[in-house]
Amino acid sequence: MNDSLLLLIVAVGALVVGAAAGWAASSAGARRTLHRTQRFFGLPEGSECVLVTHRDSASAHGSIPRHDALALLGLAAVVENCRAHPEVAPHDTGLQGFGARTEFCVGDPTAHRRLAAHLTSLLPGVVVHPGDATGADRGTFTIGSTAYRMEPGAVEYVLLARLTAGEGGRPVFLAAGQRPVTHRAAVRHLVRNHPQLARRHGTDGQFCLLLKVVNSQAYGPDVVEVVADVTRAATAPAEPRGHRASA
Q: Which DSSP string do the residues of 41-66 spell out, in sequence order?
């Protein structure tokens, strides 16, 4: 065997070993990423979760609002990537308490019974105003001493939260907004930024963020700003004044 052939064999062998090592490292990295994602969303492989939404009462067929439906599709992709199994349930169907399985609750808390109940139980420091007889101020959030009123199509707000309670320790994710476009914006923010959220708040941590959707009439759910982390104020006991949303 001449030197050239020996060098060729050594080079090929080195390439094969390097490729195998690279594949192993890549696979290990992908597994670690998957495990972190599964832990953050409370979705171990083979587990079950529930996606809770409400139907549009203005629709003749009680259909799900378009933006809410697209938000659910985004969440379904996350569930599939975690190798878990989703169930979609309407807000007014009797469901078990929280903690036994991961729950994604998406909608308008002035119309979504399950979401309104979660706000009362888990975010007592948030007041959602049902509005007066003319509908004025409907959906306004009051957190602490600050009110967040929407300007439809221009400035709208949504709460994005990851909370844990009850037996089992599985998280409840809330996307509680003033209009359907805000629910979709919150879900997109969650899906796109969950690695950063996990680093900031912990894979098992709780948080409640107030997001602002800017100029949705032109940009839809694409332009989102984080107004504040309101976890402390939102989880504090409710003040006696104000009214909470009811279905």
A: HT--TT-EEEEEE---TTSTT-PPPH
CA distance 128 to 148: 10
- Give dist(CA 27, CA 30) in Å, integer: 5
> Side chain identity at 202, as an amino acid letter?
G
**What is residue 93's DSSP assignment?**
S
H or E element in which residue 176 lies: strand 171-177
158 and 178 Cβ atoms separated by less than 8 Å: yes
Going residue by residue through the chain, which has 247 residues, state the pLDDT in tens, using 9 for 90 and above.
565 655 655 555 556 555 555 555 566 667 788 999 999 999 999 999 999 988 765 554 557 788 888 999 999 999 999 999 998 887 766 666 677 889 999 999 988 889 999 999 999 999 999 877 666 778 899 998 899 999 999 999 999 999 987 676 899 999 999 999 999 999 999 999 999 999 999 988 999 999 999 999 999 999 999 999 999 999 988 665 444 443 3
**85-90/146-148 β-pairing:** unpaired
Q: What order do you get walking across the sheet with 146-148 strand by strand? A: 126-128, 141-143, 146-148
Look at the block and give the residue holding tokens 């799900």: 64
Q: How far is CA 137 from CA 128, 129, 156, in A?
A: 10, 7, 12
Specify the length of the chain in residues: 247
d(CA 195, CA 201): 10
Cα–Cα distance between 35 and 148 in angstroms, integer?
37
